[in-house]
Inverse folding.
């Protein structure tokens, strides 16, 4: 009664309804003003964060350890103490793709460093697979351009001057090996000597290529039932895809590195959006396979959201374990073995969890659940392949 009498005679500022509490029972507006001191906003922020943290502690452990528990709790109406399914899935999706993006960047960076080391040491000077003189010349021009770019990058402030001497030795080795390959192919000695003495091309030029990106011009897209601006946009995306593929497979080392980094960034930026398509599609699969259970589509959608939330959480933990193993293995070999074991356990728990979740939520026998689980997984695999391929194409088209 104390709370009710404290608002006696007070009316809602929005609809003038007499208040009986902190919120208007007619329009829902709070009695508290948004115009408040900064310390009031800070208190509200801390309260919100602590409330979310409390829900995280109630949500993540059962999500990971109790298959189907959160879904059955939602079906039973007990929802306040848990994070909403869509918010939970979306946050874990962003975190998992962010983690995998970091891991992909680390792998790409190490691959680039290994290639750079092979380039400097001369380990990449093999021309034996070049089947004619033109291919040998293009291969030599590409490697010399990569060496020139490496020389320029280390000539800047902060570079390593000792690499210049290594680059010089590698350049002479490449020229000698190319000249020897030309001799083996029966090219006249004068031409082989010219290849050995030819100056290194500028790193920004790719003049020895007959297939420059500008020459890989696509034909304008013309789909009669699409408007002109859509055809123009598709043509631009197609050209971007061709240019990126050219740089990725036929460019200099600097161009390949930039194209690889660009592709990784673009694909991971597209994945969260494309993965959102999987939620309703997976719910539709569940609806079709459990048609006689007479459940609403929204129930299947909640199952889909919780399933994907668990998948994203597992992928994030697997990726983190792999990154931690790579970082700790040089310092303590046993940590790599232990974390590898954790990764294996997480990978095994992933299908087992999803099977147990499907069995507990839909309450069918083990054999029937296994058959439906296998069929749904087969359909989902091809759907996921299509979505990931679409994300890769979108990444190339930027």
């Amino acid at each position: 009664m104390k709370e009710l009498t404290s608002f006696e005679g007070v009316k809602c500022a929005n609809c003038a309804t007499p208040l009986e509490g902190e919120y208007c029972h007619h329009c829902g507006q709070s009695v508290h003003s948004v115009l408040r001191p900064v310390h009031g906003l800070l208190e509200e922020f801390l309260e919100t964060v602590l409330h979310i943290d409390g829900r995280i502690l109630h949500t993540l452990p059962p999500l990971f350890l109790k298959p189907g528990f959160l879904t059955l709790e939602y079906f039973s109406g007990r929802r306040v103490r848990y994070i909403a399914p869509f918010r939970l899935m979306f946050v874990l999706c962003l975190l998992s793709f962010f983690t995998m993006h970091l891991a992909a960047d680390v792998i790409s960076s190490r691959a680039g460093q290994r290639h750079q080391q092979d380039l400097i040491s001369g380990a990449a000077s093999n021309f034996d697979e070049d089947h004619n003189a033109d291919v040998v010349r293009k291969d030599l021009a590409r490697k010399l351009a990569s060496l020139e770019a490496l020389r320029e990058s280390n000539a800047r402030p902060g570079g390593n001057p000792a690499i210049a001497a290594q680059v010089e030795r590698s350049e002479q080795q490449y020229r000698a090996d190319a000249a020897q390959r030309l001799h083996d192919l029966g090219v006249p000695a004068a031409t082989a000597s010219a290849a050995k003495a030819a100056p290194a091309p500028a790193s920004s030029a790719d003049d020895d290529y007959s297939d420059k990106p500008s020459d890989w011009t696509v034909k304008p897209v013309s789909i009669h039932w699409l408007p002109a601006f859509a055809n123009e946009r598709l043509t631009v995306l197609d050209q971007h895809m061709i240019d990126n593929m050219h740089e990725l497979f036929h460019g200099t080392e600097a161009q390949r590195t930039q194209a690889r980094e660009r592709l990784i960034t673009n694909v991971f930026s597209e994945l969260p959006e494309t993965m959102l398509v999987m939620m309703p599609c997976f719910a539709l699969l569940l609806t079709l396979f459990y048609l006689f259970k007479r459940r609403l589509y929204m129930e299947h959608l909640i199952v889909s959201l919780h399933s994907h939330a668990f998948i994203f959480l597992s992928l994030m933990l697997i990726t983190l374990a792999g990154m931690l193993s790579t970082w700790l293995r040089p310092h303590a070999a046993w940590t790599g073995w232990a974390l590898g074991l954790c990764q294996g356990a997480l990978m095994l728990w992933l299908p087992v969890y999803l099977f147990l979740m499907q069995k507990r939520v839909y309450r069918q026998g083990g054999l029937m659940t296994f058959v439906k689980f296998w069929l749904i997984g087969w359909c989902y695999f091809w759907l996921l392949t299509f979505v990931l391929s679409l994300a890769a194409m979108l990444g190339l088209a930027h």
